[in-house]
């Protein structure tokens, strides 16, 4: 009887030692740095990705990882039920356990896209289309359909997307980024509208957006923005045409080839502020926060004209005689 008990105890001890060795081996494997060729790889996990599909992607991408072991690691740790879609960068500093935890936590690799102040909606769409990491879903969607999907009260998209740098995970859709930019622009516009000069000659936030887009295109010089905005505000108050070239260029569309001729100034379009008084019907670009605030709080002065000095700054004038002298000096290169 004692012999049987001894044999049983020895067998039990052997089993415990075997299990301990297995556990130690598993722990060592789970925490051993990965073999990654090349030094870093990136995988994109689709929605519904499983540990087995993930480890197969990893092996195909150059990460040497035991398939069954990774599956069991994810299952026993409970991480398999939390795997999240997205792009993940894998490096030799990762271990199987750390990688599984990162995927469960959604620690995704992010990309950046900058929408530049003064860009048109067409330029924004082109930037989105040029990003291979952005999933394209808006092909064939016209402007009205896009605005309806955004839940917007406006039918024209121009100017309604805030210029900023946006971070996103690969696989994010073009619509998701536009929605983020649209909501950001509405917030910025509301801030500017709430802070507006009460004597401002615009009636709605949308008209403020239109004015801000013109200010954005007319000057990038920070110190001149408020003064330029003041010129347009003064003209609006007295019913004088805005006569701003960027609106003419916008109305020309693809006909614009880098130059404005006299006949372009005389050719009427809804955006030609030489042939029509008041603001154009829509913005002509995406204004940033500085242009929005300059439009909301224009400079107080008596200027009705301005001209570029050629260095990014502007020269202002109260009357046409002064303006003509400025044009002669800064545009035609003649000394008065």
Summarize the structure in words:
Helix content is 47%, strand content 9%. It has 336 residues and is mainly alpha-helical. The strands form four sheets. The chain has a two-stranded antiparallel sheet with strand order 1-3. Strand 7 (305-308) and strand 8 form a beta hairpin. The protein is elongated. Mean pLDDT is 88; it is low at 16-23.
What gyration radius follows from the Cα positions, in whole Å? 31 Å
Q: Can you count the helices?
A: 13
Helix content: 40-55%
First and last CA, distance: 123 Å
Shape: elongated
Outline the low-pLDDT stretches: 16-23
In percent terms, what proportion of residues is strand?
5-15%
Query: How many separate structural domains?
Result: 3
The pLDDT mean sits at 88
Please give the order of strands in the largest beta sheet: 1-3
Order of helices and strands: HEEHEHEHEHHEHHHHHHEEH
Pfam families: YceG (PF02618)
Catalytic activity: a peptidoglycan chain = a peptidoglycan chain with N-acetyl-1,6-anhydromuramyl-[peptide] at the reducing end + a peptidoglycan chain with N-acetylglucosamine at the non-reducing end
InterPro entries: MLTG-like (IPR003770)
Organism: Corticimicrobacter populi
Spell out the blueprint of helices and strands.
Elements: H1 2-30, E1 35-36, E2 41-45, H2 51-61, E3 63-64, H3 67-77, E4 86-90, H4 96-105, E5 111-114, H5 121-130, H6 143-149, E6 165-168, H7 174-194, H8 205-218, H9 225-238, H10 245-252, H11 262-266, H12 289-296, E7 305-308, E8 314-317, H13 320-330
Antiparallel strand pairs: 1-3, 2-4, 5-6, 7-8
Helix pairs in contact: 2-3, 7-8, 7-12, 8-9, 8-12, 9-12
């Amino acid at each position: 009887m004692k012999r049987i008990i001894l044999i049983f105890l020895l067998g039990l001890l052997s089993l415990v030692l075997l299990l301990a060795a297995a556990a130690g081996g598993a722990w060592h494997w789970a925490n051993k740095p990965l073999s990654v060729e090349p030094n870093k790889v990136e995988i994109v996990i689709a929605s519904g990705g499983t540990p087995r599909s993930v480890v197969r992607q990893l092996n195909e991408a150059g990460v040497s990882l035991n398939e069954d072991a990774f599956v069991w690691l994810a299952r026993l740790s409970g991480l398999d039920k939390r795997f999240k879609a997205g792009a993940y960068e894998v490096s030799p500093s990762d271990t199987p356990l750390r990688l599984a935890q990162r995927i469960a936590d959604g620690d995704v690799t992010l990309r950046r896209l900058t929408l530049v102040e003064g860009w048109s909606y067409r330029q924004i769409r082109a930037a989105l289309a040029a990003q291979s990491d952005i999933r394209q879903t808006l092909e064939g969607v016209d402007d009205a359909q896009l605005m309806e999907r955004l839940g917007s009260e406006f039918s024209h998209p121009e100017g309604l997307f805030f210029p900023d740098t946006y971070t996103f995970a690969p696989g994010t859709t073009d619509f998701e980024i536009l929605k983020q930019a649209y909501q950001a622009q509405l917030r910025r516009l509301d801030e500017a509208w709430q802070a507006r000069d009460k004597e401002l000659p615009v009636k709605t936030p949308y008209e403020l957006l239109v004015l801000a887009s013109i200010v954005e295109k007319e000057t990038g010089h920070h110190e001149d923005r408020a003064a330029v905005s003041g010129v347009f505000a003064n003209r609006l108050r007295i019913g004088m045409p805005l006569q701003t070239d960027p609106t003419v260029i916008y109305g020309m569309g693809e006909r614009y080839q880098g130059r404005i001729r006299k006949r372009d100034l005389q050719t009427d379009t809804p955006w030609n502020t030489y042939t029509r008084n008041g603001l154009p019907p829509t913005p002509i670009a995406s204004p940033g926060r500085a242009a929005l605030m300059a439009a909301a709080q224009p400079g107080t002065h008596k200027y009705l004209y301005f001209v570029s000095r050629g260095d990014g700054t502007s020269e202002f004038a109260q009357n046409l005689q002064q303006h003509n002298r400025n044009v002669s000096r800064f545009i035609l290169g003649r000394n008065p």
